[in-house]
Design brief:
31% of the residues lie in helices and 32% in strands. The protein has 71 residues and is α+β, with helices and mostly antiparallel strands.
Length: 71
């Protein structure tokens, strides 16, 4: 299991709900959450074999900014 961390521009629960279906469509994602209080609006994903570029592309397609963070 690996943890991926992304900086996003998802700023509200309404926007989280907009990407919920996208994130739950990946069977390799075990858990995910947004930290809307963090200045980077962090998305953390626990997954197996998921490439960060896939998540970035998925959120970009939905109209959101998403970039992997080094942690």
């Amino acid at each position: 299991m690996e943890v991926l961390v992304f900086k996003t521009n998802v700023t509200s629960k309404r926007k989280v709900n907009k990407v919920r279906a996208l994130l739950t469509s990946f069977p390799t994602i075990r858990q995910w959450n947004f930290d809307l209080e963090d200045c980077d609006k962090v998305l953390r994903i626990e997954a197996i074999g998921l490439k960060p570029a896939m998540v970035e592309s998925l959120l970009h397609t939905a109209g959101f900014s998403c970039h992997e963070l080094d942690y």
